[in-house]
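Most newcomers find our protein records easier to grasp once they have seen one. The structure tokens are whole numbers drawn from a learned vocabulary of backbone shapes. The record below serves as our worked example for the rest of this section.
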Amino acid sequence: MRWKRLLDAEATRQERLKKRGWADKQSDIDKRAKEHAVALTKEAEATLDGFEGCSVRTLGRRTLLTGTVLKDTSRFEKVEPTPSVLEDYPAEPLITEPQFTPLPVPVTSIS
């Protein structure tokens, strides 16, 4: 049921694009995206082939290097965390301190 709704939604979208003349543009974009993906795949495969060739020359035999071969398994010493330093907060200000004393308001006479 959900798959049918998805297919219907895609068909509706394609119909809207077709009416607006964007279907061709969208298919061109899709085509270019696929071509780009193929190019990236070929590049990745060439890199892997080069890596495998390097390992053959280095090790003198054909082996498959995996992540487990390259993994660092050396032991690390356990470092205890340092205790945090609490800073002293200043004392709460008193209402009698000068910054809380109201300023005198000058009296002006209205004539």
